[in-house]
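Exercise: predict the fold of this chain.
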Amino acid sequence: MHKSNYFNKFKKDKEYQNFYKEASDFLDIAIQVAEARRKKKITQVQLAKKTGMPQSQIARLESGSHNTTIATLYRVAKALDLHLKVAT
């Protein structure tokens, strides 16, 4: 089966759609955190110190490969002088 046909088959699958949406949401959050940190001109180490988290946790958050909690996002937003807004 050609790669594009295989992908089209998956795109119709509800489980795949849910997974893709969730992964996309995590990536969007990761990009927003990384961009906000860079805009403030601080390093991951500096942000980690402000949040009381290890730098590795900030790196995982920014990579989008780590499920995170609202509490963690709140701490990061507060450290970056931002407001956390959760919408559906």
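Check your answer against the key: The chain has a mean pLDDT of 86.
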